[in-house]
Structure formats: structure tokens, C-alpha cells
Amino acid sequence: MRTQQRILKFILWGNWILLGILGLAGLVFAPFDFTKGIIAGGLIVTINFHMLYRTLKKSLTPPCLASHNVVLVKYYVRFILSGIVIFIMISSGFVHPLGLFVGLSIVVASILLATLGEIKKHIFKEAV
């Protein structure tokens, strides 16, 4: 269980750190619309990830177990709202679509980094 908690903590903090790094890199190296896309996409996906974490934690804690239908409804409502926000941002020309794609990939990148970190720990643990 400690490994799972460590990975989750890394992902939760890694999302915000990657968002900050990519946002600053976008400000320095990319056009402003591209940077707005990175920041907007990163905020959407990071907030969604935190809300999913909170929903699952509340639903799976023993004193008040929730139905899986409630969890699914909340998930799909967030999914649809995110889709509407993304559609509005792209169709109004507020953000660059490629920048938005980069921003929306932040959680995936942080999960990948957490996985690679754990693999590295297990490999070097075996070597010692």
C-alpha cells in the first residue's frame, strides 16, 4: 500500500509541477495562444484528476460507501463538461489546439514519470 500512496502523491504533485514547468516554457518559447492552450488544458485535466480522486476516496471509504452508479454519473458529468469547455475554447479561437493537446497530456506524462520512477526503484533495489 505504501507504494501506491507514494505513486499517487507523486502524480498529484507532479501534475502541478509539470503544469508550472510547461507553462513557463510556453511563456518563454512559444506564442501566447499556444501557452494559453497549455495552461488551460493542464488546468482542465489536473482539476478533473483531483476531482476524480476526491470522488473515489469518498465513495470507497468504509463509513459511507457509494453506489458505483453515483461514481459513474459524476465521472460522465465531468467528462461532458470538460468536452464542452474544450469545444468552446477551440471554436472561439481562445487557445491553440496543439497547445491544448500538450496541456491535456500533463496527467499522462506525470503517470508515466511516476511509473518510470517506481520501475527504477525496483530495478536498483534488486541490484543491491
Describe the protein's architecture and organization.
The structure is a single chain. The chain is mostly helical and 128 residues long. The chain has one domain (2-127). The chain contains five helices and no strands. The chain has helices at 2-29, 32-60, 68-91, 97-104, 106-127. It is flat, with a radius of gyration of 17 Å. The model has no long low-confidence stretch (mean pLDDT 90).
Layout of helices and strands:
Layout (H helix, E strand, L loop, with lengths): L1 H28 L2 H29 L7 H24 L5 H8 L1 H22 L1
Q: Characterize the largest beta sheet: strand count, sense, and whether it forms a barrel.
A: none
Number of domains: 1
Q: What portion of residues belong to β-strands?
A: under 5%
- Topology, number of strands: 0
Helix amount? over 70%
Shape designation: flat
Overall mean pLDDT stands at 90
Number of helices: 5
Label the structural class.
mainly alpha
User: What is the element string, with H for helices and E for strands?
Assistant: HHHHH
Q: Which consecutive residue ranges, at least 5 long each, have pLDDT under 50?
A: none
Termini Cα gap: 23 Å
- Rg over C-alpha atoms, rounded to the nearest angstrom: 17 Å
What can be said about this structure in brief?
The protein is an all-alpha fold.
Which key terms come to mind for this protein?
5 helices, 128 residues, mainly alpha, single chain, 87% helix
